[in-house]
Amino acid sequence: MSRILSPELTHKVMSATDAATFINHGDNVGMSGFTGAGFPKAVPQALANRIRDAHSAGDEFSIGMFTGASTSAEVDGALAEVDGVHLRTPFNTDPDMRKAINDGRVEYMDQHLSHLAQQMWFGFYGNLDVAVIEVAAILPNGLLVPGTSVGNNKTWLDLADKVILEVNEWLPTQFEGMHDVYYGTRIPPHRNPIQILSPDQRIGDPYLRVDPDKIVAIVKTDAPDRDNTFSPVDDASEAMAGYLIDFLRHEVKAGRMPRNLLPLQSGVGNVANAVLAGLADSEFEHMTSYTEVIQDNLLALLDTGKLDSISATSFSLSRDVAEKFNQNIDNYKGRILLRPQEMSNHPEIVRRLGVIAINGMVETDIYGHVNSTHVMGSKMINGIGGSGDFARNAFLNFFVSPSIAKGGKISTVVPMASHVDHTEHDVHVIVTEQGIADLRGLSPHKRAERIIDNCAHPDFRDALRDYYDRACKSATGLHTPHILEEALSWHVSLRDTGSMPK
User: Fold this and answer.
1) How many C-alpha atoms does 441 have within 13 Å on its Cβ side?
2) CA pair distance 258, 478, nearest whole angstrom
3) Beta strands 374-375 and 307-312: pairing type?
4) Rounded-to-integer distance, Cα 19 and Cα 47, Å
5) Dist CA 481 CA 502 (whole Å)
6) What is the mean pLDDT of the chain?
7) What is the model's pLDDT at position 16?
8) How far apart are CA 390 and CA 22, in angstroms?
9) Is a pLDDT exceeding 70 seen at residue 359?
10) Tally of CA atoms within 13 A in the half-sphere of 44 that contains its CB
11) Per-residue model confidence as pLDDT tens digits over 66-89
12) Which residues carry out catalysis?
């Protein structure tokens, strides 16, 4: 059965190769896609071929690329391989694009995911020339049925001069009705409060809208999203999950949150996935989630009945779980809402709902400044994603990581973070497999003692304590004591010897 039900648009169906001709050198292009879900499957690869041919002929050809978050090898990877991108934002996980960014061949703006849509409306990046958006269907009235992610698609469709749609038949048609696309956003000073009072509350439409006159091409595809794999839960992840869940029990006992907790947000990754697995075995019931991404174990909590509802902007599933979801999608109607990321990550909503945020980190320093994006201070990994949106506004936030890396050569707890994404003012709780450090209400001195004693690996704990003790005696100021000549010496040692000092 055709997915393109609008008679006015059927004549715009064409090949991906033909559709790619509507994208020109220097264009700013908004692509769909968030955590490997909902990205366009055909046009970016056709565009990459076009760029390769242009470069072979000696012509310049590159684009500015804007997405929801990460895409896939078929988008970021294909375009990075042909040096087809000169500007990238807001988030990337593809290794070829990462290399291009760290080699200086691509300008990368690492953005809070809630910020990009409004910044495009403000005109910070100039004109949006083309939008390439994957959908599940085009209805007779021209409305678009979104698929596995919403991301920034609404904004791209609103702002782009030209629109290319990919209609993916791999997506079940039953996705219709699972989305909540809010069209009430305004530019200051005309903004209104966003009236989401519970994670399952609808405030928008089930469909995306687009001016049909802007649609220049429609491409049919039939291809799955990117496979997302999760490592088996190891001892360290299990220990961290245990500490975190015990901490939640303590918060309930102290009367700071209800017995069914507050809405959960979980970043992408193995540790967060392990925490969700631990919650499945806990006593907590009738939980809710207000998050960015639906991972395997979050969906499992919904399946077991532990979780009542999920609000997110995208899926991030393994292949087996994605196929199972597609086969049973009707069972999730009314329990899952996918929203634009400017809503899923909206600071006002996160704060109002009192979200519990769980996100990973690369390192923390002894005072609780967290680096979640860089290696050795200057090499980008993926980006801040939505962790800042949630951590800064959460009722309670956790940053989690094993205490060591690279076989024990690297300590996750360091004297000074080599890059800071989340300052001490925004970090509530640090968790490693060694223990948990509740930093709320503590001065820098108390924070340092708690992080070193509770979270640092024993192999590095004495060295951290020695640094801190000497800093307290020799620093020019004792509010946040540091020895400037040594503050980043652990990273210098890692660079020069392959290991941090023990």
Assistant:
1) 2
2) 39
3) unpaired
4) 9
5) 20
6) 96
7) 98
8) 37
9) yes
10) 32
11) 999 999 999 999 999 999 999 999
12) 292
pTM over 0.90: yes
**CB < 8 Å & 24+ apart, contacts of 200-206:** 200/288, 200/308, 200/309, 200/311, 200/334, 200/335, 200/337, 202/337, 204/180, 204/339, 204/343, 205/179, 205/180, 205/181, 206/145, 206/176, 206/177, 206/178, 206/179, 206/180, 206/181
> Residue 277 pLDDT > 90, yes or no?
no
DSSP state string for 79-100: HHHTT-EEEEES----HHHHHH
According to the model, what pLDDT value does residue 1 have? 59
Give the residue carrying structure tokens 């760290």: 102
Phi and psi dihedrals of 79, rounded to 5?
A: -75, -35
DSSP result, 304-316? HTSEEEEEESEE-
The phi-psi region of residue 177 (left if phi > 0; otherwise alpha if psi is between -120 and 50; otherwise beta) is left
Spatial neighbors of 108 by CB under 8 A, at least 6 apart, are 87, 88, 89, 92, 101, 380, 383
In 165-267, alpha helices (H) = 235-253
Cα 94 to Cα 382: distance, rounded to the nearest angstrom: 8
Contact present, 372 and 422 (Cβ < 8 Å): yes
- In this prediction, residues 395-404 reach a mean pLDDT of 96
DSSP class of 179: B
Cβ burial of 344 (10 Å; 0-12, 13-18, 19+) is buried
The whole-number pLDDT of residue 184 equals 94
Average pLDDT over residues 235-244: 91
CA–CA gap between residue 228 and residue 294 (Å, rounded): 11
pLDDT digits (tens, 9 = 90+) for 407-439: 999 999 999 999 999 999 999 999 999 999 999
Residue 163's pLDDT is what?
98
What is each CA distance from 493 to 117, 374, 414, 487, 489, in whole angstroms?
Answer: 41, 17, 12, 12, 6
Q: How far is CA 46 from the centre of its chain?
A: 27
**DSSP line for 6-61:** -TTTGGGB--HHHHHTT--TT-EEEE--BTTBS--SSHHHHHHHHHHHHHHTT---
